Amino acid sequence: MSDLKPSEIVKELDKYIIGQDKAKRSVAVALRNRWRRQQVPEELRDEIAPKNIILIGPTGVGKTEIARRLSKLTDSPFSKVEASKFTEVGYVGRDVESMVRDLVELTINIFKIRAQEDVQDKARQIAEERMLDLLLPKSGSQTPARSEESKEVQFELVTPGSDETSSTREKLRSMLRKGKLDNRYVDLDVADRSTPMVEIFSNVGMEEMGINFKDMLGGILPKSTKRRRLKVPEGLKMLAQEEAQALVDMEKVVKEAINRVEQSGIIFLDEIDKIAGKNGSHGPDVSREGVQRDLLPIVEGSTVTTRYGPVKTDHILFIGSGAFHTVKPADLIPELQGRFPIRVELDSLGQTEFIRILTEPRNALLLQYIALLRTEGVDVIFEDEAVADLARMAEEVNDRTENIGARRLHTLMERLLEDILFDAPDMKSKRIVIDKSYVATRLNDIKDNEDLSRYIL
Which of 151, 230, 304, 424 could potentially form a cystine with 376 if both were Cys, beta carbons 3.0 to 4.6 Å apart? Predict the structure, then answer.
């Protein structure tokens, strides 16, 4: 993070997101401020609160993509939630604390996978030794270690009486590594990880109650095993997975993950405008303000109880986003407004931006379709005039129907290439040029028929 200056963060975002310079600058500064906070004296560090951001703009202009790319850039824990799915405590539905629990769960899983990858070599060695122990002919008496191991995993060679019975351990190891035993089958008893489905219905702390109940059941119910017949390589792989899990220090993983969430977690609150109601609203909108009030302590900084222990939200960065067509940020309750001091309005996208979106980013839409069709041996070439026409049509359809931003390009591209994508495996001509006339033939009739374009495009 010390190497990522705000200008470099913007450059990295420019590789995937077209335009929206104001939003990129705001998130770059917010991200850099996190690193700056870590450098200040410890007594002042906890006093510096993150400057949460509200991104204002219609759908499809890059709000979510900016936040997601930001988290990947800095390897920060990231979670995207729809604010509209939460309900006020007392109503049936998810409570706002669940978004912190989801972020913790996600981060722990990522850290666990990384920890298992770090011990993979050692796990493979142990798995190989266990396989060799059990492939060697059984002697009359088992050692205590062998007997103890057999309680967990038992292997039986499916083809007994083979020449390997007289081989030494090292010869057997050599055969195992060279793949000479790959066609042998083994019966492997593994722990059955399936747990009974438990549904918890409660109006307070529903998720936490469900988690504790499942943990309690997991400790009471007897552990069952399931016998599976596998080839030796598959058995080795399964043993290596078991050993990797056993080698990982989960206490350390959980501690590191929670610390990362607390210090650099990002929660993206989409559709935050859906919980903003105008003053004096009644009926179905009555719980919107309640959701805002439930959300307030999380954003201000509080301690959320999770199955892994308490998690502080004081320094989690919250990025809210919404179209704010019918409401405005000022319609949020004043306390919540104060917790989102930075507000950035994103620009609507037009033909110029659409052309750039189709061609410039590293994951440009045209590059994706070219790569997909190349797997069938078909080369597709898009002429500049065809790309310009496609961008112009996207802008026109957005203006006449619902403005869904760059997502309109996905709809138009699927419609444009529908026949080619269907016929690609059987095509004799492996070179196709998409020109202006092809775009007009495929899309003009639909675009000009407004009733039809509302449904199809």
Answer: 424
